[in-house]
Amino acid sequence: MNSNQRAKGIQAALASAMLLGIVPVFGKQAILDGFTPLAVVALRTSIAAFLLFVLMFIYKRQFFYIFPVGLYGCILAGLVNGLGSILYYSALGRINAGIGQLLYSFYPLFVALWLLLDRQAINRLTIFRLGISIPGVVLLLATGREEVDLIGAGLMIGSAILYALHLIINQRVLYEVPAPTVTFYTLLSMAATVILAFLLFKPSLPSLQTPWWPILGMGLLTFLSRLTLFYGVKNLGGLQTALLGLGELIVTVALSYFWLGEQMSPWQWIGTLLLCASLVMVGFDRYPPEKRRTTGWLSWLNPPQVTGSEFPWRPTT
After folding, report:
1. How many domains does the chain have?
2. Does some domain include residue 257?
3. Whole domain around residue 80: which residue ranges?
4. Within a domain: residue 175?
5. Sign, Cα dihedral of 42, 32, 250, 255
6. pLDDT tens digits, residue range 231-272?
7. Are 236 and 286 in contact (CB under 8 A)?
8. How many CB atoms lie within 10 A of CB 192?
9. Is 98 part of any domain?
């Protein structure tokens, strides 16, 4: 990976973190306005998938093509992240947006765990960055002025586990497939998952007088963040992008403080500084170029390898 690709990957991941950091605040506002958590996740994902479909249909129809195994990977990633989104917004209905994002920010730890299970190594600087991120998150979580709802906390941690898994699955698919293609089919699978859950459990919407701007804003931000997220994964790798994504936490906490009126203690600000230090150190982290791996529990996502002897005919020269 050359320096230009790396710089673009960092910029894309930072943009994704900024956009995704705003989404929980909009989601909490929509829930406060009367939308159910399932309605919130179903509507915002559907809007994002529709916007991406229109964009690709008008400008980049060639991105609709995907090989079958890659499509299966996107469907699996979308299913996993769709279930994670349901857990996330169900948790957001029980806990504050800032506290929820604090718990959700543990997902880089689960990314590292999934990488190890997939037989991928992580370097020492990444481990060190994770090491200073953990106490930062603990300070933010344990030194607040309000108690955390345990059910909501459990739902949010479950969402983080599933989100990390979907990142690793998409990282495999992105070795062979363009980012817009992966984004579209993953979002489409997510939309199908959450819409089905919405129709099965709570197919209801609030009154017509309820403001819809938080939902529309979430859909647009999700659409933009998905594009930048997977571009970052393609150029950096899932774990590095996840660590950069901790910037979501800073954005959400800041907006929760100024918009929703949530307060932070001095110790929580110290935790925020530790997370910022982890983000700064990404500029010193070095990884070799990503290659398609033939081992690991996600190796089935690779396209089949065909040797010359397996062709039914021999091409003439």
Report:
1. 1
2. yes
3. 16-301
4. yes
5. positive
6. 666 666 656 665 666 677 778 877 887 777 777 778 877 877
7. no
8. 17
9. yes
